[in-house]
Amino acid sequence: MIVGVPREQKREEYRVGLVPAGVRALVRAGHRVVVESGAGLGAGYPDEEFDRAGAELLPQASQVWERSELLVKVKEPQESEYEFLRPGLVLFCYLHLAPLPQLTRVLIERGVYAIALETIQTDDGLLPCLMPMSEIAGRMSVQVGARYLMRDAGGPGILLGGVPGVPPCEVLILGGGTAGANAAKLAVGMGAHVRVMDLNLGRLVYLDDIFGGRIATVMSDEHNLERYVPEADLLIGAVLVPGGRAPVLVRKELVGAMRPGSVIVDIAVDQGGCIETIRATTHDDPVYIVEGVTHYGVANMPGAVPRTSTQALANATLPYVLKLANLGIERALGEVPALQRGLNVYCRPGAAAGSVSCGPVARALNLPHEPFEVRHG
């Protein structure tokens, strides 16, 4: 199979879909890998490393897309890349389609097999390709929040952890999953007072156990949101519905009840966000103010640490890339349930258009849900 790796086109995105070690593994398995020149520079991988690993370097993105049977990216195709989508192409990247009706429609119309890294799910419920980025985004959310609480960044001039005689900041984390737990880990380490809210009592019990009582755990409901959101100096949204739109938990009126200069970091913004006042921003223009509260809505937070995040992502995705390359799309979907769960859009050969196979995406966009069925024989 021919595996392609283009340079990312999303604004301020420096990660790359494959690292040279992954290229070497694919080439040793008998596959061809084509890489757009400069694709790895932002993550610290020069063309020479890809060349030594056995990749064929191509000067233009169009050449990579045209030759590839399996296209490995990090972020969803941008509008400038829509023209490259074609029937039968296997697209393997983060998609987050629930808030992206236009891209979903294009994928359906072009007959693409679109596998979303964020919905690849193992039998035990883990999201192996999302977890490393959630870990990074969770930890970054606290670093970012601490930064924007400082006076020179427009904040009220508060040190996250306080000092003896001066109380620490109040950090409220909505969601106790991978991102929320990692946010709590860093916030506790910096000395903040941390509350984590979640609907899952079992998850709260688990977090209370692993943190040894160093965080407060609170059931997520309207009453507790109204009580604790106004007290937060730093509010972190870390709610996840795999494949679906994030539920809006904090309305604008509640944001208005927060203290002036408080900071909101919504990790869930790439799935629409769990704060009503959040909107997607970019690394070069990351914040804005609503109701006197600083909002940070960068949708690709791990892109700010591309070396770390690329390595972590490659560790998680390479086994699935190898399965797709070695088995082909239909057989891989049939033999690897986690990949089948990751399939968001597909199109059978000869069909006029594709179908949405991911239930949460179909529900979020009010589209027909047509689960992928494995063909035998």
Walk me through this protein's architecture:
The chain has 377 residues and is an alpha/beta fold. The protein has two domains: 2-119 and 306-365, NAD(P)-binding Rossmann-like Domain (Rossmann fold, 3-Layer(aba) Sandwich); 131-304, NAD(P)-binding Rossmann-like Domain (Rossmann fold, 3-Layer(aba) Sandwich). The chain contains 13 helices and 15 strands. The chain has helices at residues 20-28, 47-53, 61-67, 101-110, 131-148, 178-189, 201-210, 222-228, 252-255, 306-327, 329-335, 337-342, 359-365; strands spanning 2-5, 32-36, 56-58, 70-72, 90-93, 113-116, 170-174, 193-198, 216-219, 234-237, 263-266, 287-290, 293-296, 343-346, 355-356. The strands form two sheets. Strands 3-2-1-4-5-6-14-15 form an eight-stranded mixed beta sheet, with helices on both faces. The longest helix is centred in the C-terminal third of the chain and has 22 residues, at 306-327. The protein is globular. The mean pLDDT is 96.
Sum this structure up briefly.
By secondary structure, this protein is of the alpha/beta class.
- Tally the helices: 13
Largest sheet: 8 strands, mixed
CATH topology of the largest domain: Rossmann fold
**According to CATH, what is the class of the largest domain?**
Alpha Beta
Which of globular, elongated, flat, extended, rod-shaped describes the shape?
A: globular
- Low-confidence runs: none
Count up the domains: 2
Say which CATH homologous superfamily of the largest domain is assigned.
NAD(P)-binding Rossmann-like Domain
Report, as a whole number of angstroms, the end-to-end distance. 22 Å
Order of the strands making up the biggest sheet? 3-2-1-4-5-6-14-15
* SSE string: EHEHEHEEHEHEHEHEHEHEEEHHHEEH
Mean pLDDT over the residues: 96
Radius of gyration computed on alpha carbons:
21 Å
Which structural class should the secondary elements be placed in? alpha/beta
Question: Roughly how much helix do the residues carry, as a percent range?
Answer: 25-40%
